[in-house]
Design brief:
Number of helices: 8
Strand content: under 5%
Order of helices and strands: HHHHEEHHHH
Shape: globular
Distance between the termini: 38 Å
Largest sheet: 2 strands, antiparallel
Radius of gyration: 20 Å
Helix content: 55-70%
Structural class: mainly alpha
Strand order of the largest sheet: 1-2
Length: about 200
């Protein structure tokens, strides 16, 4: 993903694309590739999508905590200027310690989903999505480096609202005893039956 994003630079020196440079790694690209590989594996092994998502929840929650800690270590995702007693000095101003907020929220969400073993497949995952996106919605209000849209709403907050609403709907659907549509498994079974 990083190479694709900066293709003109790599076109001049294509072998640089094989270098394992930490700043050239793409979190979004890794998550996308991981999702595609997981879907392929689940389909191949006929694993319930809801159960597989629940199994991946603890790992995803841990990754979000690691990202928060990396923001704390690097100074990224810094907060907006503030005079609260716990403000920290960063980039020449006293600011909200948003990486600390992010780490505390991620640790709390991880603790909430770590020991869950819901009867209905998919509910642990949808609960994690609701909690993670809601915490993002709240923390973004204190960020000083994110894109702000008209009316003061941040782009990440708008996305978090959409994700939260969809995840709440899915969680309600699952807790009423319905299952996640097993489209991948059903498609595989129908193609096997047709043969």
């Amino acid at each position: 993903m990083y190479v694709f994003r900066y293709l003109p630079l790599y076109a001049e020196r294509p072998l640089d694309a094989l270098a394992l440079t930490p700043h050239a790694l793409s979190l979004s690209g890794g998550l996308l590739l991981g999702a595609v590989a997981s879907l392929w594996r689940w389909r191949r092994d006929r694993v319930s999508i809801g159960a597989a998502l629940d199994c991946s929840t603890r790992g995803l929650a841990t990754v979000f905590l690691a990202i928060a800690l990396s923001h704390l270590a690097s100074g990224e995702a810094f907060g907006s200027p503030s005079e609260v007693p716990w403000a920290v000095e960063q980039w020449g101003a006293m600011r909200h310690p948003t990486p600390v907020y992010e780490a505390l929220a991620a640790a709390g969400v991880l603790a909430m989903v770590f020991r869950r073993d819901d009867q209905q497949p998919g509910t642990t995952f949808t609960l994690w999505v609701v909690l993670a996106s809601t915490s993002r919605l709240l923390i973004e209000a204190f960020r000083g480096d994110s894109l702000t849209l008209a009316g003061g709403l941040r782009q990440a907050q708008l996305a978090a609202v959409g994700v939260s609403v969809a995840a709440l709907w899915a969680h309600g659907w699952l807790t009423r005893g319905r299952s996640i549509p097993e489209a991948v498994t059903m498609a595989h079974e129908s193609s096997t039956t047709a043969r």
